[in-house]
Amino acid sequence: MSIKSNIEYIQKLKGKAAEKSGRTADDVLLVAVTKLHTALEINEAIDAGITDIGENKVQEILDKYDSVKPVKWHLIGHLQTNKVKYIIDKVCMIHSVDSLKLAKEIDKRAKQHDLIMDILIQVNSAQDENKFGITTEETEALISDIAEECGNVRIRGLMCIAPYEEDVNDARPYFAAVKKIYDKYLDNRSEKVDFKYLSMGMTNDFQVAVEEGSNLVRVGTAIFGNRDYRREK
Ligand SMILES: *Cc1c(COP(=O)(O)O)cnc(C)c1O
Question: Top-level CATH class of 3-225?
């Protein structure tokens, strides 16, 4: 299967899932996750209509940035504060903010570049110890703290990585818990807390995530095939 036909297939499934929750395919943004894939493969995806790509490591963004055609870059993986400065002017959104410390560093670097950085708060609704993110209980306090202290950061929504489940339906409650918080803010928007994105769903669970209300899916394997982890530095 080619990258192009994989993308067409994902778009179709995404549309079906969106319809199940009263929306259309266009209401759900497909972010192609390109980690461990080459600029050549990424450009093929862009030629096939991909507008947004996601990387989970700062170094990979820097390595590929100049070889990839114009596209919106998303930082979707855990971000160390000392690396914010390298990507602040390269990405359109950071999905993985889970502390005030990180938000403050993003704010500081955004100010230096005279830009407003869009961020998502990563919520670990399954309280999975192996994953980053804050608990559902901590989410509202972190959002108010960031809104109060970070003038150059705009909170655009929430992100969630569900634990791997043998039966993907078992992930529904974790998505639903984050959607519930998302809805509260959707009806109560301001300049600093301007919700638009609910980033949930990967290759394994994106259909279920969309049915539960996600409007941004991060799909890698189903587009590019398995990742070759020997490429990892
Ligand atoms: C790798 C990754 C994805 C994509 O995973 P696939 O299973 O390959 O679709 C999505 N989100 C994050 C945060 C990732 O690191």
Answer: alpha beta
